[in-house]
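This protein record is not my work; I was only asked to verify it. Take the sequence as given and treat only the tokens as open to question. I have pasted the whole thing underneath without changing anything:
***
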Amino acid sequence: MPLVNDLLQPKRIFLGKKLASKNLDHQLLPKTIALPIFSSDPLSSVAYGPQELLMILTLGGIGLLSLAPGIAAVVVLLLTVIVLSYRKVIKAYPSGGGDYEVAMKNLGKKPALIVASALLLDYVMTVAVSIASGTDNLISAFPELNPYRVEIAVGFVIFLLAVNLRGVRESGVAFAIPTYLFITSVFVMIGTGLFKVATGQELTAFSSQFEVTPLEHGLGSATNAALILLVLRAFASGCSALTGIEAIANGVPAFRKPKVINAQKTMTLMGATAVFMFIGVTTLALVSRVHYAENPCEQLQQWAQCATDPQQSVMAQIAGAVFGQSNWMFYVIQAGTTAVLLLAANTAFNGFPLLSSVLANDKFAPKALLTRGDRLVFSNGMLSLSFAALILIIVYQASVTGLIQLYIIGVFTSFTIGQIGMLKHWGRLQKPKKKLSSEENAANRKEAMSGILINGLGALMTASVLVIVTITKFTHGAWLVFIIMPVLYTVMFYTRRYYDQVAAEIAMDSETTFGAKGDYAIVLMDKLNKPQLKALDYALSSRHTHLEAVHIAVDPAGARKFAQEWKKFEKELGLPLRIIESPYREFSQPLIEFLQKHRAENGDERISVYLPKLVVGHWWEHIFHNHRASRIRKQLMYLRGVMVTLVPWRLESAEYKDIFSRRPLPGDSRRGHVRPARRLHRGSSNMVARTRAKRIDED
């Protein structure tokens, strides 16, 4: 149909051709493509994790930077434990639910919903923080773009949405090169920097020339409590490097077979790469004496351009110290960092739709999130994610420091509950089962003991981090998380309750009976024309017990004229005309009142309403029609016992593919341009004759 073609052509250009369901297996990912899709978030976090750690320590002065290696070591230990923990989750629960499924099967519905709300928020924050951080690194290379920070971030979100809507495999191929470029360039930067240090060459960052002034609100008083609080806050900010680790566990169904083995190998590779880069970046930042301040104009007082020039990111300063600010590798590092930070949001574009589809399957989310789009991706989930992320980016003006305060609490909430759920899983597994042999029970006990050790340590560490993050970040904006998560929890809880109520209401039972004692139908008529008579013809063909033509008299003069025209054909049709007065010029309400009164007088009689409807061929033609039939249908649908039938009349524009379709011209037959004749009666008299004949046959 032309209207459908008009609407779908831009969609096809935007998304590409539709993919059949049988092509789903071809969209599954090898490890080389799965790594950039599911690991870009934790890999990219080395660009802002060390930066946030150093920034918080700098609040207390340069002296506190000596604590950075110890804090970084704890972050690396925690990262390693969590990677090992999720390798266990992948094997135990490979269906894609991740921590949500672990909590649901081991702890129950309420803990599972807490995990789900935390993960959904985490994915939205992943997009917002990654895009903001990528924009920040882009501006570090091109400071003149700073006034357009928000617009650039919004554009990046829309771009990622467009690429991901084209399909998982296509987005993976598109994003693989930038991710591997980032990994390679950072490895080269770390190797080059360590080589220069080993050979006695000095690395000097741009900000090393500025002294750092401690902020009073940063350390407060020089007490041990204030110092400990600042160190804990720095550790909490450094733990932002752990975000996104769970994405591989949530995305196991997207891997090629053997899914579990491939997902575990990808998890190991991601963990090793992230650990190496985090250690390397933190080391080079300290060696080159990077001074990154939360408030540069207050703390870096020697920097005269702090009010006009944006502060360079830590990655940019390290690249400048290793290669030089004008070296081509500096721009390669910045390009790779910007690209991978933007692609880190792609982790959420794969994790959020998969998780929301699992929630929809469990009836905790709308069913629209369960269906795949034309390109075999959960497009509704991607659209929801993009909308939420755009709101945060606009509200926080694409500020990494402002957004990251909301980031980590949701992550470690899901980590902690997931680890506790796995402990309960291992507790069940180590119990001997009669159906299994002694060797199999022994193997299960061995695996359960290693799982208890790893997940127990993981639960202890992540719970500790959750407490630290909550205490240190609550007053810096994290309080908003404690509003958003309960709202998400409540929405999911009552969504499930709604679906349960609907299922109970429509379920078959022995009390509900069907059947009507009568059959009454009306044809809503406004004028005597072909669409109206076609609706009447269709109603006659259905052979109702009692059929009437009904006219709503919104215009008294028009109603009288229509009644006179009807009289000319009333004998031939053998149908009465009922005119319903409408003193307030409404169509629906008088009709509804008439039908309600009729049903009250006739009990459980079945009522059918026929409405003629024009079908146009192009979107712009909708402007010229009032769509009255559609509006009346929507209101009649709420009347019990009333069925509505729309009888379409397709205009000539609906028969052709473009707006330049024309009537036949002389010579068309000779040239082979003959249009097919429409099998419709052209005159009202022919239609009336047909309906009259049908009426006689029925009688």
